[in-house]
Design goal:
Blueprint: E1 2-6, H1 24-36, E2 44-48, H2 57-67, E3 74-77, H3 84-90, E4 105-107, E5 115-118, E6 129-130, H4 133-145, E7 151-154, H5 165-168, E8 172-173, H6 175-183, E9 188-193, E10 200-204, E11 207-211, E12 218-219, E13 231-232, E14 237-243, E15 248-254
Helix pairs in contact: 2-3
This protein binds fe (ii) ion (2 copies).
One fe (ii) ion is lined by residues 50, 79-80, 156, 195.
């Protein structure tokens, strides 16, 4: 099974650039076009929050139009820039999501080797995330229901300190209790997040955790408590999570056009020197 994780697409209304500089719609189109060039097509596309920039109906309509060009199934989870009710209005046929309340779900098909748990860390009106008692209890209940099934947990806010001070200031409340739940459930193979617009890896509760790059802009790398809130245009991309049969293996992919592929060997089989 191959899962493409795209994150922090931050779609804006027509004619508007994110932070007056970033054409997020064009950059999502670039990532979706890149996906089609992969030698193996993903089984699933998962968008890990900050789907749009301001939670508006117009932005979700634009995102939906872009996703309707994709032929593989896709799933969404919200980030701090999202709005649950606008998401429900724009994506009424989204599978597994309950009709009201938190936008979180267990996704499982009989032919998948993995169970996917999507968590809602949105705390309306706040940039930081929240896993409240209700959401934590729901997660613990879902994990306890299938302790032997390899599980992937997806959520927007990462449950660890990244070192980038201004992002840690809008981190995840409830992460200690979340770590305790992970520690009790070794079937969790990986926790995948967004929010940081960078690929960062960590361990929480003994489990592997990582954040995905954005399909658009990158949070400036500055591991300081007083880091200035800045972004830059590093090569954008996405993650490919591959179930090998033994575990999950993650590849980072750059979605900008690049040169290649070039051969290592000449036509006679000699290494090109
Ligand atoms: Fe974001
Ligand atoms: Fe975010």
């Amino acid at each position: 099974m191959l899962i493409a994780q795209l994150s922090d697409t931050h779609i804006k209304p027509a004619g508007r650039l994110a932070y007056q500089r970033v054409d997020t719609t064009a950059l999502l189109d670039q990532a979706l076009a890149h996906l089609k060039t992969l030698p193996q097509q993903p089984d699933l596309l998962l968008l890990t929050g900050d789907l749009v920039d301001a939670g508006s109906a117009e932005e979700y309509a634009r995102l939906r139009a872009q996703l309707e060009t994709v032929t593989i199934p896709w799933l969404l989870i919200p980030g701090n820039h999202d709005d649950r009710e606008q998401m429900r209005a724009a994506f009424p046929a989204h599978p597994w999501v309950p009709a009201a309340g938190f936008w979180q779900y267990v996704a499982q098909e009989s032919h998948w080797p993995l169970r996917l748990i999507g968590l809602d860390t949105l705390n309306p009106g706040q940039s930081g995330g929240l896993l409240c008692e209700e959401r934590l209890a729901w997660l613990a209940q879902q994990l306890a229901a299938a302790p032997a099934t390899p599980t992937l947990v997806a959520m927007h806010h990462p449950p660890f300190t990244t070192g980038i001070g201004h992002m840690d200031d809008i981190g995840l409340t409830g992460r200690e209790a979340f770590g305790d739940i992970l520690a009790a459930h070794p079937q969790v193979q990986l926790v995948i997040c967004g929010h940081l617009h960078r690929n960062i890896r960590a361990t929480v509760g003994g489990r592997a955790v990582m954040t995905a790059p954005s399909t658009a802009h990158t949070v400036q790398l500055d591991i300081a408590r007083d880091a200035a809130p800045m972004f830059r245009m590093e090569p954008p991309g996405y993650l490919l999570h591959w179930w090998s049969g033994e575990g999950l293996v993650t590849h980072q992919v750059f979605s900008e056009p690049t040169e290649g592929p070039f051969p290592f060997f000449d036509e006679g089989g000699q290494l090109l020197l």
